[in-house]
Amino acid sequence: MANLIPFRGVLYNPAKAPDVSRVVAPPYDVIDAAFQKALHARHPHNIIRLELGLDEPQDSPGQNRYTRAAALLKDWMAGGVLQREREPGIYPYMIEYRSPLDAAGAPLKTLKGFFSTVELEEFGTGKIYPHENTRAAAKTDRLNLLEACGANFSAIFSLFSDPKGAVIQLLDKSVNADKPRFEFTDDEGFRQRLWAITDPSVLKEIVAFMQSTPLFIADGHHRYETALNYRRARRERAGAAKGVQPYDSVLMLFASLEDPGLTVLPTHRVLTTPVPPLPDIKRLLGETCDIEEIPSKQFLHTLRGRGQAAPVFGLALRGAASPLLLSVKPGHRPAANASERDKLDVSLLQTLVMNKLCPKESDQHALIYTKDDQEALGLVAQGKATASLLLNPTKVSEVRAVAAAGERMPHKSTYFFPKPLTGLVMNVMEE
To answer: What is the Cα–Cα distance from 5 to 85, expressed in whole angstroms?
Structure first.
């Protein structure tokens, strides 16, 4: 169902950037302002200068971070900082990491996948499924960058079903495990490795396999919808072009739904606006949830354990001695015939809790999102937030069910982990 297109990737030239760890970056949407500046300062060729440049006081419609990125890309290509591969290929990728959900001393996990471009498909065709809602401002920013540079610097993260592991087994057989193109330890202490495969027979086999399986977007919905908008604009300008054009495809990282190295973290909600006092909270939520105080030392363990059997949320309140556990009462749990979206913990949290604690839309727009349990609790303990709502992670099977049903999850429902780095391999469109 997915039309994979092996491509001539653009990679950093080791002669110009011998330590690739200094020029790559996390995805743009997890970089705050301080880290953005730090990455700019880290290396003059760090990918952040293309993917998320700094605004300057004198910026104008004709001179801004998007036009600067386009000029830098042209210079780096001409100067050999970035090099285009000679042959089309795909790029196997591994991240060896420790999950934040694992206990201390647990064995490392390895996420395995590969980079390639794939032909864009409109949602609803049964080939590529989204699972999460998007917001307009982020798409405008990404479209401005794509219009200026004609390049994908970061990959959309997508999942496909491969229960027998056929694709990864083929990739493993087709590369020299001891000789990756890049190998380094990133800022998180994770081991990153990238290879290239250009053997036409291997590419043909992988392309054929992927044509029979749908794709589920795990991360990068804004970038995918931006790529669709860019294609529409290019087609309007170019008219009816023959064959697949460079703007008809987008860069993706593909990983298996069944990969044991895939982790989904919860995205906790941190409230920064006033919330009702505790007696009022108990009154507001008591009809739908059983509410109990849990000692802080047992709180996360209890939240995770009880969440295996029923919808359960955590609530930390500024000034409270202990966090609360909110267990959805049986009569308010989703019916068996409810939609896949309505069965999700994050959907229940929104309707049963969030809408009561934050009835104003402006309050919900002021939320801070974090995947980190301790950060969610710490912001409240430090008085920097009024409350935190903690969730259990969404299951990969739930993401797949929602997407296959043609539904969308609420905003910030999932945090797939680990995220592929930006700048390892890029899709600079050949016009």
So the answer is: 15
